[in-house]
Write a structure and sequence with these properties.
The complex is a heterodimer of chains A (329) and B (334).
Chain A: E1 8-10, H1 11-25, E2 29-33, H2 49-53, E3 58-60, H3 65-77, E4 81-85, H4 96-109, E5 119-124, H5 139-143, E6 149-151, H6 156-168, E7 173-178, E8 185-187, E9 201-204, E10 209-213, H7 216-230, E11 235-239, E12 242-244, H8 248-258, E13 261-268, H9 273-285, E14 294-298, H10 307-311, H11 317-328
Parallel strand pairs in A: 2-3, 2-4, 4-5, 5-7, 6-7, 10-11, 10-13, 13-14
Antiparallel strand pairs in A: 1-8, 6-12, 9-11
Helix pairs in contact in A: 1-6, 3-4, 7-11, 8-9
Chain B: H1 12-41, H2 56-63, E1 71-75, H3 79-84, H4 89-96, E2 120-124, H5 131-144, E3 150-155, H6 162-173, E4 178-184, E5 187-188, E6 191-192, H7 201-207, E7 211-216, H8 220-235, E8 241-246, H9 266-275, H10 278-288, H11 294-317
Parallel strand pairs in B: 1-2, 1-3, 3-4, 4-8, 7-8
Antiparallel strand pairs in B: 5-6
The chains are: A alpha/beta (329), B alpha/beta (334).
Bound molecules: thiamine diphosphate.
Thiamine diphosphate binds next to strand 5 of chain B.
Chain lengths: 329, 334
């Protein structure tokens, strides 16, 4: 990371700065979604953008996720660069035909003639006491579909650089932000930078065990790594940052080095991101592994409201610590 | 439905040329589709095909009211729209046969012809799936000030899709230059539309503030006159429209749908063919106006037939894409 000269931004500010910079750089970029103009989005991520760019480029839509995602697909095909805002990740269900059957396939079906350079930004993450329809992490659905790219930043620095890359990409990109991390602060330099897709980041180097973690789970993994260090176990924490394209090489190399791997992601474990990454590692590093790859995703239940129940559905520092200790034992 | 055509913007020579060109296009589409039927029944064409025969007046009447750079989106029953917007039969056939020389390098097939050169954003096999795309293209046209208009073709079956009304609402709010063309051929696959469509179709458009009109889709001159008015109105920035074109498909829902007695009678089919055929209606008018006679119309038919025959030969001889192409084009810029 280039020196930030001590400047720190929250993840929300980093997202906003990326959008503002890209909108200044390229007049084709515009944002559309619900309550995003004067309201600046319910999470206040977009506050101030409408003042600079006007309601033509920060466009309040009706509550019509399928409709305005479809409008974005058509606008992207014909010369604009839309950034769709889906207020909660749970509502991507309503956009699926447009993302899966339209955006993802237009380029291939047309033999490479039409392109869909658009970004769909939305949230993931539980533990906000929002219950089953406002807490899901559904990014794996998008990973399953050829033609889409999927981005999950875990720090303000990554969020800004990856979002700028997403907006400049020629393909439909789904960009998931952990709503619990919007206030997380981190260094972000003043000067322009972008982060390429398909390059994992080693958030913490270590020798005894690899913890692959995404988005909200990176902080949990880093906390667990600290506990493990006190117990004499050196954990390496790797964030793939983009789930497609996926930096398989870095993950496999780390697995070969440490010989033990935990994979964490806040999506459901079954048929999910953790299952896919575990299989990539099992195939790529099988003969170097001392233990089966351990998957830690969200528990396979609808997210409950009651705080003690909800907390039980996601991996914690303690549960990761316990799993790692058992594997290294 | 009145069939008076506004003659004022055209001098009579270009007007005559227009209707002869329209005739040629409609005949070309019909011959194209008959050839598709033939190839399919002889097992020379993979997949399935939804024929546009009987509906030619809608696509041609509307596309003749468009600029070359205006956009269309099409449907699973899309060959007629694509040809009417300027696609050529040779590359169309090549696509239908899955050949590399096809419009989409063989990756799209019958239901997904797309062609930026003729403003064709693509045919869509999700019923109602292109309403967003057509509206988004109109959004771009307005934002970029290009003066383009976008036409969204869909069958009356798409009236059951909620996203259609979502985008009509936005098109009206934002005054987008888009014309939604509902081709009511009476059947959603094998079910009469009246069994699944409540209320008044045009009222659905007016509810959102769309200029909404119905037209006899078998009368290409009426289609053209209405389309021209709605398209130019949209181009002037006066907002979107819904055009309901009442029409009929002569063949089955797709080429394999041959026993149709359980959903419609042979007599009904025969009546449309003998009394409401769009090509016959136009040729009768051309003859009555002395713009053509049996010989000159026969000449056009022969030329169209030759073009189709050549196109089939081209497509049949064209090579399939190499299997190494299968993973190409999944992502742009790779
Ligand atoms: C979303 C969706 N549902 C169902 C189908 C299957 N299907 C294909 S065509 C069709 C009927 C379409 O009727 P209409 O829109 O009137 O068009 P037409 O075939 O009459 O031209 C159906 C149900 C589909 N392709 N997409």
């Amino acid at each position: 990371m280039p020196g930030s000269n001590g400047r720190e931004l929250t993840l929300a500010q980093a997202i906003r700065e990326a959008l503002a910079e890209e909108m200044r750089r390229d007049s084709r970029v515009f944002i559309l979604g619900e309550d995003i103009a004067e309201a600046g989005h319910p999470f206040k991520v977009l506050t101030g953008l409408v003042e600079e760019f006007g309601t033509d480029r920060v466009l309040d839509t009706p509550i019509s996720e399928a409709g305005f995602t479809g409008v974005a697909v058509g606008a992207a095909m014909t010369g604009l660069r839309p950034v769709v805002d889906i207020m909660f990740g749970d509502f991507v269900t309503l956009t699926m035909d447009q993302m899966v059957n339209q955006a993802a396939k237009v380029h291939y079906m047309s033999g490479g003639k039409w392109k869909v350079p658009m970004v769909l930004r939305t949230t993931l993450g539980a533990t906000r006491r929002s219950a089953a329809q406002h807490s899901q992490s559904l990014h794996a659905w998008f990973c399953h579909v050829p033609g889409l790219k999927v981005v999950l930043p875990s720090t303000p620095y990554d969020a800004k650089g990856l979002l700028k890359t997403a907006i400049r990409d020629e393909n439909p990109v789904a960009f998931f932000e952990d709503k619990m991390m919007y206030r997380l602060k981190g260094p972000v330099p003043e000067e322009e930078y972008t982060i390429p897709f398909g390059v994992a980041d080693i958030k913490r180097a270590g020798d005894d065990i690899t913890i692959v973690a995404t988005s909200s789970m990176v902080q949990v993994a880093l906390g667990a790594a600290k506990l493990l260090e006190e117990a004499g176990i050196s954990a390496e924490v790797i964030d793939p940052r983009t789930l497609w394209p996926l930096d398989e090489k870095t993950l496999i190399e780390s697995a070969k080095k440490t010989s033990r791997v935990i994979v964490m992601d806040e999506g459901y474990g079954r048929y999910g991101v953790v299952a896919e990454i575990a299989s990539v590692i099992a195939e790529g590093a099988f003969f170097d592994l001392e233990a089966p790859v351990k998957k830690m995703g969200a528990m396979h239940v609808p997210i409950p409201f009651s705080p003690p129940l909800e907390d039980a559905t996601v991996p914690t520092e303690q549960s990761v610590f316990d799993a790692a200790r058992a594997m290294c034992g | 439905m009145a069939t008076a055509v506004d003659r004022s913007p055209l001098d009579s020579k270009t007007e005559d040329e227009l209707w002869l060109r329209v005739y040629r296009r409609m005949v070309t589409i019909r011959l194209f589709e008959e050839q598709v039927n033939d190839l399919y029944t002889r097992a020379l064409m993979p997949g399935l095909a939804h024929l546009y025969i009987g509906e030619e007046g809608v696509a041609v009447g509307i596309c003749e009211a468009l600029r070359p750079d205006d956009y269309i989106t099409s449907t699973h029953r899309g060959h007629g729209h694509c040809l009417a917007k300027g696609a050529t039969p040779d590359r169309m056939f090549a696509e239908l046969l899955g050949k590399e020389a096809g419009y989409c390098k063989g990756k799209g097939g019958s239901m997904h012809i797309a062609d930026p050169a003729t403003g064709n954003l693509g045919a869509n096999a999700i019923v109602g799936g292109s309403a967003g795309i057509a509206t988004g293209a109109a959004f771009s046209a307005k934002r970029l000030g290009t003066g383009q208009v976008s036409v969204c073709f869909f069958g009356e079956g798409a009236l059951g899709q909620g996203s259609l009304y979502e985008v009509m609402n936005m098109a009206s709010l934002w005054k987008l230059p888009v014309v939604y063309v509902c081709e009511n051929n009476l059947y959603n696959e094998y079910t009469h539309f009246s069994e699944v469509t409540a209320g008044d179709i045009l009222a659905r458009g007016t509810a959102f503030g769309l200029e909404s009109e119905a037209v006899d889709g078998q009368d290409v001159r009426a289609v053209h006159a209405t389309a021209k008015r709605l398209v130019e109105r949209a181009r002037r920035g006066e907002g979107p429209a819904l055009l309901l074109a009442n029409t009929y498909r002569y063949h089955g829902h797709h080429v394999g749908d041959v026993s149709r007695d359980y959903y419609r009678s042979k007599q009904e089919e025969q009546q449309w063919k003998s009394e409401r055929d769009p090509i016959q209606i136009l040729s009768a008018w051309l003859t009555a106006q002395k713009l053509a006679d049996a010989a000159s119309l026969g000449q056009i038919q022969a030329e169209a037939k030759a073009e189709i025959d050549q196109a089939v030969q081209f497509a049949t001889a064209a090579p399939y894409p190499g299997v190494d192409k299968v993973a190409q084009d999944v992502y742009a810029g790779e």
